Structures are given as C-alpha cells and as structure tokens.
Amino acid sequence: MSAGNYDITIDQGSDFALSITVSDDGVESDLSDWDARAKLKATLSSTEATTMTVSEANAVDGILVMSLSHTQTAALAVGSYVYDLEIYKADGTKATRLLQGRATVRGEVTN
Asked: What DSSP element (H or E) covers 73?
C-alpha cells in the first residue's frame, strides 16, 4: 500500500487536529498492535523537525488523530512545509507510511 497524499493548512497560534481513519478495501484497520508517529519539516532534507502528536482515538476501528498544540503552531514560521504520518511495530519489524503531503502555515494577526 502506498501512502495517501493529503495537503493540510495550519493556522499559526491555533490548535490543529486531523482525524484519520485507516482502512483497507473499505474495512477499518485494527491498529491495536501498532504505534504511530508524524513529523513536519520545512523540506525533506531539513534536519529540524516538529514532532506532531499522534493519538489513537479508536485503535480497533483504525482512527488516529494527528495534532499540534497552539504553542507548537505559534512557533512555526509562516510558509510551506512537508509532513508524513506512519505506523510502526514497536519491535522494529514493520513500518508503513499512511499519509504525506504539504502543510501550509498561515500567519496569525492577533498573537
């Protein structure tokens, strides 16, 4: 399975959350035995990254929530970024990228 492509918009200084349902042929995936991680970078080759929180809203039904706090988004410069989200086995035996894309951070006026 190849990663889905989905572009996101993040408002600087605001909480950000994106709910994702993982399925295979229309059947929700049980993610109980998986962990998840996501990062945001200015470019693919950037060494600095912002780690996004990924929580299991309902692992049995394949629902994950990828999020950033308002403190994290306030620290981001306005502009374009790349991100991805992957699930992995804690023992290191498997990893699958689920989602990737561009992230646009829009500037905050009332900070």
From this structure: helix 70-74
